[in-house]
Specification:
alpha/beta, Rossmann fold, 2 domains, 6-stranded parallel β-sheet, 11% strand, globular, disordered N terminus
Length: 266
């Protein structure tokens, strides 16, 4: 960690970048419903009612999903008999094998998942919104930050428009220019680099629930001054949290700490 990082770590951020799913919002209920509807479109099961306990198994495996198109693939793997332990340990290889054996095109699956969501939102926006739960204390925190002078950005792989709808419904007014969603089509490290360049003197903190994402950012020399936090309430595993606790570049953050204002997480 550089001396500048040590210096800046004693202060609150001037720019706070937050992942959305698993940090601000818990969308597990919606994820499963969207994943199952998409699964039914791809594989056309005779029984359109999801098997008992499938949802709970999917919730436990949500940490392996990096982008939304993988969600119906997780269900496919479960229903083909792959163990949860194997999926947690070897998801990249399992997913690649599934794509090849089932002759899937990730881009087409991605479009299908987005289409399923759009149709659902058009038909029942209230029902769709109701399946998203903001984590306790987070909405008041975002509202305080908005009036504190800290620049707030959302950096997520979720569709920008979904993020905007959910924030607006919860009374959080964030300009579209502050949301870096799936439309930017670039790694989160590149987005942070972009924010760093446009705000050269900023003290940047970034909160994410995916350990691999933080590890990738931590390995980049030009981002050494960005303070990195793993949200321990998000979609990660006990092994992820243990690894984060042993990494000098990553701070493990609890929801209680996160929701407290002013921000004194280090």
């Amino acid at each position: 960690m550089t001396s500048h990082s040590l210096l800046s770590s004693s202060h609150s951020p001037t720019l706070l970048a937050l992942d959305f799913d698993g940090v601000i919002c818990d969308g597990l209920l919606e994820y499963f419903q969207t994943a199952w509807r998409s699964y039914c479109r791809i594989w056309s099961p005779v029984d359109k009612t999801p098997p008992e306990e499938l949802a709970e198994r999917f919730y436990r495996l949500r940490p392996v999903v990096e982008t939304g198109w993988e969600m119906p693939c997780v269900l496919r793997s479960i229903l083909q008999g792959t163990s949860e332990a194997d999926i947690l340990k070897n998801w990249s290889a399992i997913c690649l094998d599934l794509v090849q054996t089932e002759e899937l095109v990730p881009g087409e699956v991605e479009q299908l998942v987005d289409c399923v969501r759009d149709e659902w939102i058009t038909a029942d926006l209230t029902g769709w919104l109701s399946l998203h739960r903001f984590y306790p204390g987070v909405v008041p925190l975002l509202q305080r930050i908005a009036t504190s002078g800290i620049e707030l950005y959302i950096v997520t792989t979720k569709e920008d428009r979904f993020v905007q709808q959910l924030l607006a419904q919860s009374g959080v007014d964030l300009p579209a220019s502050r949301i870096f969603g799936k439309s930017v089509r670039q790694p989160k490290a590149q987005t942070l680099r972009q924010l760093q360049k446009q705000s050269a003197e900023s003290v940047i903190w970034f909160v994410e629930d995916r350990l691999k994402t933080l590890q990738t950012i931590a390995s980049q020399v030009d981002l050494q001054d960005v303070q990195l936090f793993l949200a321990d309430w998000g979609y990660n595993t006990a092994a992820d949290r243990t690894a984060a606790g042993q990494d000098d570049r990553i701070h493990l953050l609890t929801l209680e700490q996160f929701a407290h204002f002013p921000l004194r997480w280090i």
